[in-house]
UniProtKB/TrEMBL annotation, chain A:
Protein name, entry field: Glutathione import ATP-binding protein GsiA
CDD domains linked: ABC_NikE_OppD_transporters (cd03257)
Coiled coil (UniProt feature): none
Record-linked PANTHER family: D,D-DIPEPTIDE TRANSPORT ATP-BINDING PROTEIN DDPF-RELATED (PTHR43776:SF7), TRANSPORT ATP-BINDING PROTEIN (PTHR43776)
Pfam families: ABC_tran, oligo_HPY
UniProt similarity note: Belongs to the ABC transporter superfamily.
Gene this chain is encoded by: gsiA3
Enzyme Commission identifier(s): 3.6.3.-
Molecular function per GO: ATP binding; ATP hydrolysis activity
Keyword Hydrolase: yes
Broad EC category: hydrolase
Keywords: ATP-binding, Hydrolase, Nucleotide-binding, Transport
Automatic annotation (TrEMBL), chain B:
Ranges that cross the membrane: 35-54, 93-120, 132-150, 156-174, 217-236, 256-276
UniProt record similarity statement: Belongs to the binding-protein-dependent transport system permease family.
Main location: membrane
Location relative to the cell: Cell membrane
GO biological process: one example: transmembrane transport
Keywords: Cell membrane, Membrane, Transmembrane, Transmembrane helix, Transport
ABC transmembrane type-1 domain mapped to chain residues: 92-281
Organism: Acidithrix ferrooxidans
Alphabetical list of PROSITE patterns matching this protein: ABC_TM1
GO cellular component terms attached to this protein's record: plasma membrane
Protein name: Putative D,D-dipeptide transport system permease protein DdpC
Species classification: Bacteria, Bacillati, Actinomycetota, Acidimicrobiia, Acidimicrobiales
Gene3D superfamilies: MetI-like
Length: 602, 314
């Protein structure tokens, strides 16, 4: 480990955040330090406590939470010892925060210039030349201060520009520490790469210690020098990024890395079975033991302490006696040769508009029998609209959709029952696609009652069979959706689609609301179901990397036009269209991390 | 794989099966709910059991007009020398029953109209909501008086008329609640099967409107009583000899200085009942908000999913 100039800018010691009025902690035993110019990555899945920790670094907690132990040294001074006025002084000027969603954090009623000026005037000691600093900091985040951006309102900026403004505000006071909480989650890959590069350059230039919180390991991999993996409110593995990503030691880190799809190889994805404990209810012993493939009986009893191995800290009692630290070997997958039969679904010259805005321009598309076609595109490319046209939710379009050789009516309301039954749709967000007032078996029996005449015992049998098929078990039938995790809900949604034995399954971004480890499980489930049930599938995603794991054919959509289509192998390995080429380049890739941190190439 | 154990599953499941009842039970367990329930409960007991325990007939003349309180007439006499206590005990049950009836009529009519407007959209929405606007333009009491003076002071008509006055406001509230629910994907999912609209409204949407409906019922009940008592005060209630809290205030107010209890007693009961129902409704509303928050998913999960979805994913 190279010694960098200066000491730790931020040092966290034994930090704990508890629930108020209830037993249990959300974040516990957190210790790490960040030096000037370094970026520390904080990685974890939803509910792991990473956002709580990020906010706690500023001495702040959400309602119902309280920092109960530990200290946070900012340039040697413990900020948790400060009173409210002292904290206010420090926040914004010494330690800054970039929130997840810039559109929600910028005041929609105030001009951009006003908001930056407000921040600088709250900390008059920072600079005498407020206007000069504003221009300077906007240039640093690659926004042109002469373009009139200061007079604009937040809604007049794109998502990427908004996030740049948020970055400018974080860097405006030349803080020592900046906490970035998933700042690129809502952005498309190209914008994301530009924002990440800006963060990296600025941190190095001003000696800022940054904490970068993310659920996306691939993003973190290209950016940070050190990484901490969070699970159930604790850091389970801390170390240099290259080391952790090349040879993760904690079984959870290994699982997480194994779950990430790669655009370069067709592989079986490994998810992590089960689900993490809820915040505030960590079990006795190792919190990961229940899901850990390596767990022994001792793991369930003994609370693991961090063990130091070289520069790495790992919270696993078995880390010293387990031999191999490499990521699980992945099986590559045989490509299915496309059949020469006529396609099951044919979309011809489909065009549609929302009001005056044209969304799709003459899209042609085939889904061959018993194979999976992926539609890939960035947000706003019209891919979801295309899916909605296919299932009949978007009733007004030009062009035609042929299913099994027959032209279908444009609106679902006017399609016949057998067409409706043979095409099933799985929604993007499992949190809104299941009626919260119905039990799982009520939800599943609804389409059965509608499409099939069955006795109630036949229905019950079918329901329990389909629940087994999606690996939920029939006991889930009595539960309500809010008693299930996101991944489990999405399985229920898939079960609802396949229970009526469709021929075509349309999956609209079905994993985008889920964690990577859960995403892997769902993708594998879909792949298995497709093979076993000889389904055809239309898989819509913004994630080019996922395509490799599930589809045989791919259609790349940009601004409502198909820019490239073909087999997955052809398109991903030899992309022809400049748009596809750029997409492939901008995907944050894990394997580029191990060798060297990627430099901007284009 | 896929083991969920958050404990108390069976309790939650039982709750959802009869959520209407459970919402009320939960509200009754809060402090606010208890106070509201006790106050309105006392008034309800007086109104419905009162006729059975009244010391005198409510129609017989037993003292001099506006005689002050005495041992045989604890609340004194009224304008015709009848026992005020007996008249108070006997004068509430019909008022409350009519208020309940009017509430039920208004909620059903307004609820169906509001749901249909929001879910069917288009022309149905315009027709229903413009009708609602026109009805809202009439002052409530004037509207009822108009109807009653056209047809005559029939009890059923008064009940229907008061219900009709409630319907537009209920329709508006339910329309906005339905708009929110009908945008959800679980409604889309059922639409994609070609299920009929009325069935979707009944099976998918209605169960998600329990909370706003319960609050509306409570509010409308309170208003019903006020309007009913007001109408009785103006003489549109039961025909005169039979007692009615609202009309008692009217007929006895000339003797306010001689026996103020003849006015205060019925007025106090009306006031107490509306305060009670209003407080209880408030408790229901608060519990409903709490449930809404705890159902769905935990805050973190929602936030996490929102984050994943980002802002621009179409």
């Amino acid at each position: 480990m190279t010694i960098m100039e200066g000491a730790n800018r931020l040092e966290v010691r034994d930090l704990q955040v508890r629930l108020v009025g209830r037993p249990g902690d959300v974040v516990d035993q957190i210790s790490f330090s960040v030096r000037a110019g370094e970026i520390f990555g904080l990685v974890g899945e939803s509910g792991s406590g990473k956002t709580t920790l990020a906010l706690a670094l500023l001495g702040y907690t959400r309602r119902g939470l309280k920092i109960t132990r530990g200290s946070i040294y900012l340039d040697g001074k413990d900020i948790l010892a400060l009173d409210a006025a002292g904290l206010r002084e420090v926040r914004g000027s010494k330690i800054a925060y970039v929130p997840q969603d810039p559109s929600a954090s910028l005041n929609p009623a105030l001009r951009i210039g006003h908001q930056i000026r407000e921040l600088l005037s709250a900390h008059p000691e920072v600079t005498d030349n407020v206007e000069g600093r504003m221009v300077e900091v906007l240039r640093e985040v690659n926004l042109d201060p002469d373009s009139g951006i200061l007079r604009r309102f937040p809604h007049q900026l794109s998502g990427g520009q908004q996030q740049r403004v948020a970055l400018a505000m974080a860097f405006a006071c030349r803080s020592s520490v900046i906490v970035l909480d998933e700042p690129t989650t809502g952005l498309d890959v190209t914008t994301q790469r530009h924002v990440l590069e800006t963060v990296k350059t600025l941190c190095a230039a001003y000696g800022v210690a940054a904490i970068y919180v993310s659920h996306d390991l691939a993003v973190v991999g290209g950016l940070v020098s050190h990484v901490g993996v969070m699970y159930a409110g604790r850091l389970v593995e801390v170390g240099q990024t290259e080391g952790v990503f090349a040879s993760p030691m904690h079984p959870y880190s290994q699982g997480l890395l194994g779950a990430i799809p790669s655009p370069d190889r067709a592989e079986v994805l490994w998810g992590i079975p089960g689900q993490p404990p809820r915040p505030g209810s960590r079990p006795v012993g190792c919190s990961f033991a229940a899901r850990c493939p390596e767990a022994i009986e001792l793991c369930l009893r003994e609370d693991p302490l961090p063990i130091e191995i070289g520069e790495r800290q790992v919270r696993c009692i078995r880390v010293t006696d387990r031999k191999s630290f490499s990521v699980r070997v992945r099986n590559s997958r045989a490509q299915i040769i496309p059949s020469s039969e006529p396609p099951l679904l044919e979309v011809r010259a489909l065009s549609t508009a929302y009001g005056q805005t044209k969304v799709l321009h003459g899209v042609d598309l085939n889904v061959p029998n018993e194979s999976c076609t992926a539609i890939v595109g960035e947000s706003g490319s019209g891919k979801t609209t295309l899916a909605r046209c296919v299932v009949g939710l978007h009733g007004s379009f030009d062009g035609s959709i042929l299913f099994d050789g027959d032209e279908m009516n444009k609106s679902a309301r006017r399609r016949n029952s057998s067409q409706l039954q043979r095409i099933q749709y799985v929604f993007q967000n499992p949190y809104t696609s299941l009626n919260p007032r119905k039990t799982i078996s009520q939800i599943l029996s609804q389409p059965l009652e509608h499409f099939m005449r069955l006795t109630s015992s036949d229905r019950a049998e079918r329901i329990s069979r389909v629940l087994d098929e999606v690996s939920l078990g029939s006991a889930v039938g009595r539960r309500f959706p809010d008693e299930l995790s996101g991944g489990e809900r999405q399985r229920v949604a898939i079960a609802r689609a396949i229970i009526v034995e469709p021929r075509l399954l349309v999956c609209d971004e079905v994993t985008s609301a889920l964690d990577v480890s859960v995403q892997a499980v769902i993708v594998e489930l879909l792949r298995r179901l497709q093979k076993e049930r000889q389904l055809s599938m239309l898989f819509i995603t913004h994630n080019l990397a996922l395509v490799r794991s599930i589809a045989q054919n791919v259609v790349v959509v940009s601004h409502g036009r198909v820019v490239e289509a073909g087999t997955v192998q052809d398109v991903l390995e030899r992309p022809q269209d400049p748009y596809t080429i750029r997409l492939m380049q901008d995907i944050p890739k894990l394997n580029s991390v191990a060798s060297a941190l990627p430099q901007s190439s284009s | 794989m896929a083991t969920v154990n958050h404990g108390s599953n069976s309790r939650i499941a039982r709750f959802r099966r009869s959520q209407w009842i459970e919402l009320v039970v939960r509200a009754a367990h809060t402090r606010r709910g208890k106070i509201g329930l006790i106050i309105s409960g006392i008034v309800a007991v007086i109104a419905f059991l009162g006729p059975l325990v009244a010391p005198h007939s409510s129609l017989s003349f037993i003292g001099i007009p506006f005689s002050p309180a005495s041992a045989s007439m604890p609340l004194g006499g009224d304008i015709l020398g009848r026992d005020v206590l007996s008249r108070v005990l006997d004068g509430g049950w019909l008022l409350l029953l009519m208020a309940l009836g009017a509430t039920a009529f208004g909620i059903v009519l307004g609820g169906v109209a509001g749901m249909a407007a929001a879910y069917l959209r288009g022309r149905s929405d315009s027709i229903i909501m413009r009708t609602v606007d026109v009805m809202l333009a009439f002052p409530a009491l004037v509207f009822v008086l108009l109807l009653v003076s056209l047809v005559g002071p029939k009890l059923w008509l008064i009940m229907m008329a008061v219900g009709l006055v409630h319907a537009p406001a209920v329709a508006r509230v339910l329309r906005s609640a339905t708009l929110d629910v009908s945008e959800r994907d679980y409604v889309r999912a059922v639409e994609l099967q070609g299920v009929k609209s009325w069935k979707i409204m009944r099976q998918e949407i209605l169960p998600n409107l329990v909370s706003p409906l319960m609050v509306e019922i409570g509010l409308r009940l309170t208003y019903s009583i006020v309007i009913m008592a007001g109408l009785a005060f103006l003489g549109f209630g039961q025909p005169p000899p039979s007692p009615n809290w609202g009309y008692m205030i009217q007929e006895n107010r000339i003797g306010l200085s001689a026996n103020s209890l003849a006015v205060i007693a019925p007025a106090a009961l009306i006031a107490l009942f509306t305060i009670g129902t209003n407080t209880f409704t408030d408790a229901v509303a608060r519990v409903a908000i709490g449930l809404e928050r705890s159902s769905g998913s935990s805050e973190d999960e929602v936030q996490a999913s929102d984050v994943r979805l980002g802002t621009g994913v179409n």
